[in-house]
Amino acid sequence: MTQPTLNRRAMLQTLGNGFGGLALSAMFGGDEVRGADAKLVNGGLRGIPHFRPKAKRVVQLFMAGAASHIDLFDYKPDLVKHDGKPSDFGEKVEAFQNGLGPWMRPVWDFKPYGQCGKLLGEPVASLGDCVDEIAFVHNMVGKTGVHSQSTYLQATGFQTPGFPGMGCWISYGLGSLNDNLPTFVVLPDHRGFASNGPKNWDSAFLSAQHSGTVIYPGRNPPIADLVPSRGGTFINAGEEAEAQALLARLNGLHATARADDARLEARIRSYELAARMQLAAPEALDLSREPAHVLKLYGLDHGRTSFDAEINAVEETDYFARKCLVARRLLERGVRFVQIWSGNDNGFPRRNWDSHEDVRRDHGPLAQGMARGAVALIQDLRQRGLLDDTIILWTTEFGRMPSSQGGKGRDHNPYCFTNWLCGGGIRGGIAHGPSDQWGYKPADREHPTTVYDVHATILHLLGIDHERLTVRHNGIDRRLTDVHGHVIREIMA
Amino acid sequence: MFVRRALPWFAMVAIVASSTVSPSSAVANDDPSFERDVAPILQRRCLECHGPNDSPNGPPKGKLSLSTWSAASLGGESGPAIVRGKPAESLLLEFVRHDADGKALMPKNREPLTPAEVATLERWIAAGTAWPENHVLRDRKFDGYRWWSLEPIVRPAVPEVAASADLPSANPVDRFIREKLQEKGLSPSREAAPAVLCRRLYYDLIGLPPTPEQIDAFVSAYRKGAENAYTALVDELLASPHYGERWARHWLDVVHFGETHGYDKDKPRENAWPYRDYVIRAFNEDRPYARFVEEQLAGDVLYPDTRDGNEALGFIAAGPWDLIGHAEVPETKTDGKIARHLDRDDMVTNTIQTFASLTVQCAQCHDHKFDPITQEDYYSLQAVFAAVDRTTRSYDVDPAVAKRRVELTSTIAAIGGRQQELEKEISRAAGDALPAIDREIAALSKSTAGSERKSEAYGYHSAISAQQDVVKWVQVDLGRSLALSAIALHPCRDNFNGIGDGFGFPLRYKVEISDDPNFKTGVVRPANYTEHDVPNPGILAQSAAAGGKSARYVRVTATKLAPRKNDFIFALAELTAIEADGKQATPQTGQAIHVTSLDTIEASPRWRRTNLVDGYYPGLEVVDPGKLAALTKRRAAIAAEAATPQQRLEATDLARRKASAEADLRKLRPQQSCYVAAVHTGTGAFRGTGPDGGRPRPIFVLARGNVSSPGKEVRPGTISAVRDLPSRFDLSPDANEAERRAALARWLVDRRNPLTWRSIVNRIWQYHFGRGIVETPNDFGRNGARPSHPELLDWLAAEFRDGGVFVDAQSIKSLHRLIVTSHAYRQISGQAAGGRGQREPESLKIAQSIDAENRLLWRANRRRLDAEALRDSVLVLGGKLDRTMYGPSFRDFVIDKPQHSPHYEYHLHDPNDPKSHRRSVYRFIVRSQPQPFMTTFDCADPSMQVDRRNESLSPLQALTLLNSGLTVTMAEHFAARLEATTSGTTANRIARGFYEASGRAPTAAELDELTKFAERHGLAAACRVLLNLNEFMFID
């Protein structure tokens, strides 16, 4: 709240490292531009990256409601063999809804793909084309089977609200790669937020510009307040430019008389940058100029304008793959972190991965749509040379139980689930950390993989030592990985 | 991370000693004593990490324990730590010895041992390494711990600073500030211009802009007599009701007040607002601080039957709450334990951080790494809150009504007592006849004893309808799809109103089952009586075959309602679903069967939806109602015969008086309810401690904070590091749980507790200057900042706590007055702040180079409007601010899907909705979906304790202020208001608008540019520019 004096660093910090870095750097002679890469434009923290990064960008695919590892990615022949027999975990199990019915086989058949021969369940078969580039982690463990706490944990590294999302930390540490779009973009499921809503990408104690910016590609406006609200009928395009110029002059007079306060000049610049985003964002989100073969790649050539009432694969593909295509366009234009959500909160009819009732009914279409979008994104990034320095992380809240919940559904399994990673710095074609014979817990219970490890690894690939990216808040040096986290060397190229 | 410790008192001695004593020169009679010399070093410096295996800090690091001789000599992963008599072979010495840079391997990340300490250890080992058998060492790192915030407050003398031309002020604040400035060769800046001071005071004290008239009046008064005009304005603003609104908001930041639960299914708290109103009222009434603290922690026990004593408890419940972790997971499950542990953690953190500025929450998994707070201290604080949950409490807002309620209740009880006596007298007169018949009745009733409580719970009852042909439905969610063979409906019997059997049973109805909660798809209809009226079944169960069809939901729809005297209803006592195997469908463990309906009267306990599945229905008893009625009648006849005329008269009179008192009671203004911390009495997973009589849950020290590893049970208590006060509360084991909270409140407000008083004066200071004397108001520990003016802080704390010449004891308003009348506060905020066109003085540049961050306050700080002040000002300029105080919060969103997970849709809100034009402090605060406008401007996040807001500047702020519904709408209203109220030319209107927004008249050039713009594009467009001016956003 105090006013910084005329000081380059203070001013950069004041404006933060939204998409404002370039203009400020240029204004001050550009010595904040670091590294040989001219596209790495601005003000992350001094001293970061800590070491040579392998990647610059991240896409996080987040499956809300908890996707089943054993029906999609982690094949368990023992479940086929013992299908329908009473489950026996060899120990007392606390399940969220007491879903400890008989063992239930994967609801789909698995087939091998790629040179690595990775077995994939039928709905995610399309990922088979890229499986040699993917590292699966099958021994992920969570902390609780409660949706909200688990979503927080995977999104922010803490079970409770009040902590910045991973994208916020990366924005804070590395700054932006562009000068006209946000650093961290969130593409929510348009049917509703997941548990905790925007708190999953909130900047918490980091300043507000590190929050994820929500974009709804189909909505008008796609970004809140990008254009004047409907009430502003008195505003026309010609006037808008003149208004901005007048504002800049008046604010300039005010700032000149107070040249010892860098914030005033920074605020003038923030209006210029806003104007730039008003031009850049609609262009970035305009899919109409994508050629037919790209639309086909993403499964967006279905020609449908409306969908059936029941959950179905065409519709789910349209939703998820469209976000993936938007993500690619944003990454190309220098957005550093894109988070794509699949699934809303736990309403009915179910449009999320929380398949207590029927795995086949809900997981089927959701997984087909997700896999189609994800594989298209990987291939599209690859053909544009962006895959080498873009990390893709597929994650969810927790897994699902190998036993049935009496019927066709599965209960929560916070004791074991799967993540997969792909792209910049990731070693493909491997499966790290097996789960046990049922997919109930890690095979080696002493050495599971946690979200802290995944976060530490992603930061590492971005050139950040996760133990050194800290912010003191209420007396504690906070970091994304709390007091935990080990870089998973085994999945790195 | 390396953390610098306070230099221990012994360090000086040690450095001297090390230069004269070398290990080789040690002589036998000078050998260190283990108890006196060696053990304290190990306990203070080593045992935190290398304690016994059962240490609360976890197993020893590197598997090395130094707690006993056998453990130390056995050693850890690196080998034996100490070899008797052999310093050269003892790894301990190798690890603690300094290298060339004065650093050592151990203690890790801490200041190394002093050379003297190392020498002592070396001599002790060389001299035979005496360590008495069974002498167990434990961690004593906090012994003799000294830290500024924990030292008693000793009122410092006000520095004697010679008065001078640039310091005419006698204000003690200025003398302390001046002393520090002089030390650095700095001098204060001159006083800002009166118009600047006026705007600064308005925003600082009431959070609203002054009108041009208010500025002009102040400037002219100031010219006549600056001091009088200034103090008069300060007093006027402190007396304004808007003062409380402004300063309550600061407090609400700190206590992380919100009006939804947060987490999953972020449900609204409909009645959290009374706490917000309490805080506003307390600030406006200048509540003595000790009482303010006491009310918020234990108002129910310290100030019972007062409105504030109830509403203030909203403090404990202010933070987020995991609904699912409580309502769907019982305390017997691990996830349920975690949810309740986190819940208490939030209460403890909120309390200690808010009132004592320490980060006690860091001691959850181990002793605090930096501050003298043990893990046991932390859990003893959890024990203070072990009985309460976040829940709703009812109370009378008006103390007179509360008093009347108590009177009436006791009157009714007294009459009841007399009625019983009279009954006994009559009974004695009647001889054997009555006891005999009573025995008969008792025998008959015994068989129904179990159902007595439940028989109060009649069933589900729809809202009352004026028409009979209205469709109403009630629906049961079995939790999962089940194969059902039949559905049974049990009609009601309403004894209360004497209506009798079959009460409310519809004339026409149907029974349906489905997996779709909306009954749009897959509907099976076991019964359909919608074509013809059915006879009333009395209390006979009505069964419908479901044919083994699977369904999760059962719905009964009445298409023709049951008649009452003047209206129509639908009621049912019980709905039972029978599974295919003939079993009654029951909820899954830890779950409740949910009942929903089109509408309901919910008149607990008799009528509520949950009664539909409570397992009770009339006819369940085996009692013969006819026989019971006959007996009751006969008993009344016998009693009437036995009574004297006087007794009969008295009985009539008592009954009349009782009925009258009961009627009066019903006429009282209904009780208000407030979301607070209290003993909760619930059912299902979230039962609270109410069913156990409010007995606190046992609290254990949790190893590594893990709920599955409980250790020692702890008593209620608090931090032990405040030396003058006992840290464990002396309460009898059966003391009411509220006594625990009262004890904590008393500990906090004890004048010997230095934390409390330093904490509050520092917070108040911070909101005036933008930075606290301690920059980290929530952390006075070693990870926090050190005070920039420690003597000033202590002087203010003592003056505030005890009262003095300048501050009334515990009066926040008089503390404000002292601070804002200081010269330090009235200085210019920097270049040009005193008036336009002035050149930057050389002295400013020098000051910049010495203290660029202005820690020593050689000038004031220019402040950006915070989110609330900004939004309120936009409404003021639009002429739309509704100054109504208090009451339920306004909602600037539309709730979608309220039944399940509410979606808070801000973009659907109409910015012209006048309900939303109240001050921002009355905004309904949603945790999961923060309000976009406010959040963009850094409003406090209600999920974390915010002691100091971020101040960011971003392009998103520019977009928000240019384009949001609020600003474009208000720009138009701003223009319309100027058109309506300011006569003359466009230039007149622009000049007026500019003055309102910025606090000064525009220059000719500014006026000219804006006027031309307005003439081309309209006044509204120009007003939109005004709302985006830097000068509007910043206060000089």
How many angstroms separate the termini of chain B? 39 Å
Oligomer class: heterodimer
Helix content of chain B: 40-55%
What profile does the largest beta sheet of chain A have?
Answer: 8 strands, mixed
Estimate the strand proportion of chain B: 5-15%
* Main beta sheet of chain B: 6 strands, antiparallel
Poorly predicted regions of chain A: 1-41
CATH class of chain A: Alpha Beta
Q: Strand tally of chain B, please?
A: 20
CATH topology annotation of chain A: Alkaline Phosphatase, subunit A
Show the helix and strand layout:
The complex is a heterodimer of chains A (493) and B (1036).
Chain A lengths: L7 H8 L5 H7 L29 E7 L5 H4 L4 H5 L28 E4 L4 E4 L12 E7 L6 H10 L9 H9 L9 E4 L25 E2 L22 H20 L5 H24 L6 H6 L15 H20 L4 E6 L16 H25 L6 E7 L2 E2 L11 E2 L3 E7 L6 E3 L18 H11 L9 E3 L2 E3 L15
Parallel strand pairs in A: 1-7, 1-8, 4-12, 5-6, 5-7
Antiparallel strand pairs in A: 2-3, 4-11, 8-11, 9-10, 13-14
Helix pairs in contact in A: 1-8, 7-8, 10-11
Chain B lengths: L10 H10 L13 H12 L23 H6 L16 H6 L18 H12 L45 H12 L10 H13 L5 H13 L1 H14 L1 H14 L18 H12 L4 H14 L4 H5 L11 H5 L6 H23 L18 H10 L4 E7 L3 H32 L2 H14 L5 H4 L4 E2 L10 E19 L1 E3 L5 E4 L4 E7 L9 E6 L12 E19 L1 E2 L4 E2 L1 E2 L1 E6 L14 E4 L27 H18 L2 H23 L4 E7 L21 E3 L7 E4 L23 H13 L4 H16 L20 H13 L9 H9 L2 H4 L15 H9 L12 E2 L2 H11 L16 E3 L6 E3 L26 H5 L18 H9 L1 H17 L4 H13 L5 H14 L1 H8 L3 H4 E2 L1
Antiparallel strand pairs in B: 1-14, 2-11, 3-8, 3-12, 3-13, 4-5, 6-7, 6-8, 9-10, 15-16, 17-20, 18-19
Structure report:
The complex is a heterodimer of chains A (493) and B (1036). Chain A has 493 residues and is an alpha/beta fold. Chain A has a single domain (8-230, 288-491), classed as Alkaline Phosphatase, subunit A (3-Layer(aba) Sandwich), CATH 3.40.720. Chain A is 30% helix and 12% strand. Chain A has helices at 8-15, 21-27, 69-72, 77-81, 147-156, 166-174, 237-256, 262-285, 292-297, 313-332, 359-383, 451-461, and strands spanning 57-63, 110-113, 118-121, 134-140, 184-187, 213-214, 337-342, 390-396, 399-400, 412-413, 417-423, 430-432, 471-473, 476-478. In chain A, strand 13 and strand 14 form a beta hairpin. The radius of gyration of chain A is 23 Å and the shape is globular. Chain B is α+β, with helices and mostly antiparallel strands and 1036 residues long. Among the domains of chain B are: 11-141, no CATH class; 288-396 and 675-749, no CATH class; 399-446 and 626-667; 452-612, Jelly Rolls, CATH 2.60.120.260; 966-1035. In chain B, a hairpin with a 7-residue loop joins strand 15 and strand 16. The two termini of chain B are 39 Å apart. The chains are: A alpha/beta (493), B alpha+beta (1036). At the A-B interface, helix 5, helix 7 and helix 8 of A face helix 15, strand 3, strand 17, helix 29 and helix 30 of B.
